[in-house]
Write a structure and sequence with these properties.
Elements lengths: L17 E2 L2 E2 L3 H29 L4 H30 L9 H8 L2 H7 L1 H8 L11 H6 L1 H6 L5 H31 L3 H30 L12 H26 L9 H32 L2 H10 L2 H21 L3 H4 L2 H23 L12 H22 L12 H5 L5
Antiparallel strand pairs: 1-2
Helix pairs in contact: 1-2, 1-16, 2-3, 2-8, 2-9, 2-10, 2-15, 2-16, 3-8, 4-8, 8-9, 9-10, 10-11, 10-15, 11-13, 11-15, 13-15
């Protein structure tokens, strides 16, 4: 098994326990991280709200900025739910040592359910500053919106919101609860089979929920525009985010003395391959969406792109193509990059950054500003969502073993080698 021990800093003192001679807890480090990240998140969101109140636009600018950061953070959570479900669906062995990291990130779903309230509550109250379809009177006065009112209305949206986060929370908790139960079980193979059996139906419902949620919160910001591939487009960002975050999380844990022997260069290599593959997949879905709309040349559809190709948004569109596809494509192409922790960490941060840029490009043109209106409020909302996400995940993980210690596939995962 190939490893690169020189790239791993010396272990810091921890209060962990060992499995396969490796420390699988980081209680004190994770506890400290939970407090610090949570504090940064709460303070940053408070600053964002204060900045929003100073805008004098009925909180519209704050909501758009918050929605951008929220969809970025949620992509990590939803990516984790997909990632964990997928490992069970295909009975993957290589990823077993990393799966608890995915399970923890997936279980931030109820936290995001709460974080969604600044977006959901105004819709339910009929505030149309961001979602024009939330105002019944405006819908009745607009012929096109009136035809979409059966789906785009605040009451039905609230029902869908509850169903989305209810399902994601239950699925994530099911996999973590059963995984922890397996850690203490005398019959771990039976639990493995049960987790695999649930993965197929879970994946189908997951795909539908992610698709409709992205339509509800992002695509419907412009309710006159529509795309049949939009859910897949957002899903690509979810997968990019979770593989990047899993790599960074494993590196952070190793820097704090955990999983130094269990998670090897081989596992980082596979995460890097997924980052590379879904960089291509994101570009493919983005081009497919653009090509089908542009050559059809239907004004209701092309207007959405026309706005993003004009003025400062045109520069951002070009930057997105270069920074989200061309640069990481060549940056992650080499096998050596994927097997070098520092290089992979750089590209993981890069991908998380360009996914946020993509969310900004999708949502912020709704400000109808000719120039890209990036400002302090965008930084504070991003820091707020990121801080709450990291704090919640660290708090959940601090008392857990960081690998599923009795999973029958664990020995295969620890010994995994790329061919």
């Amino acid at each position: 098994m190939a490893t690169n021990d020189k790239s791993i800093p010396p272990a810091k003192p921890t209060d962990g326990e060992t499995v396969f001679g490796d420390n699988v807890r980081a209680t004190s480090a994770l506890g400290s991280l939970a407090v610090k990240a949570g504090a940064v998140g709460v303070i940053s969101l408070g600053i964002s709200a204060a900045l929003g109140m100073s805008q004098g636009d009925g909180f519209r600018r704050f909501t758009l900025s918050y929605l951008t950061a929220f969809m970025w953070g949620l992509a990590i959570c939803l990516g984790a739910i997909y990632w964990v479900t997928l490992q069970h669906l295909v009975n993957a062995k290589w990823s077993t040592v990393l799966r608890r990291v995915g399970e923890v990130l997936a279980n931030t779903a109820p936290v995001f359910g709460v974080l969604a309230l600044p977006i959901v509550v105004p819709i339910f109250l009929g505030n149309s500053s961001v979602y024009v379809w939330a105002d019944h009177a405006k819908v009745e006065a607009d012929h096109l919106l009136h035809h979409k009112a059966g789906y785009l209305n605040s009451g039905f949206f609230l029902v869908r919101y509850v169903l989305y986060f209810g399902f994601w929370t239950l699925l994530a908790r099911f996999y973590l609860r059963k995984s922890l139960e397996q850690d203490k079980s005398s019959a771990p193979e039976g639990i493995r089979k049960r987790l695999q059996a649930a993965a197929g139906p879970g994946m189908i419902v997951y795909a539908l929920a992610v698709t409709f949620f992205s339509i509800d919160l992002v695509m419907s910001v412009d309710p006159y525009w529509f795309s049949t591939i939009f859910g897949v487009y957002y899903f690509a960002s979810c997968v990019l985010c979770i593989n990047s975050t899993a790599a960074l999380s494993a590196m952070w844990l190793q820097n704090n003395g955990a999983l130094k022997k269990s998670v090897t260069t081989e596992h980082f290599h596979d995460l890097g391959k997924m980052m590379f593959a879904f960089t291509i997949f994101w570009a493919y879905t983005g081009f497919a969406q653009f090509m089908l709309i542009w050559y059809a040349n239907i004004p209701e559809e092309t207007a959405w792109y026309k706005e993003r190709f004009a003025h400062g948004w045109g520069d951002l569109s070009i930057a997105l193509l270069v920074l989200h596809f061309i640069v990481p494509f060549f940056g992650l192409l080499s096998r050596h990059v994927k097997r070098n922790r520092k290089a992979l960490a750089f590209w993981a941060f890069w991908i998380l950054g360009v996914v946020y840029l993509d969310m900004y490009w999708l949502i912020m043109p709704a400000t109808h500003s000719e120039d890209v209106p990036f400002g302090l409020i965008d930084i504070t909302t991003l820091a707020g969502i990121a801080g709450v996400l990291i704090g919640a995940a660290a708090f959940l993980a601090k008392n857990l073993t960081l690998v599923p210690v009795k999973d029958p596939r664990l020995a295969h995962s620890v010994a995994f080698e790329n061919i």
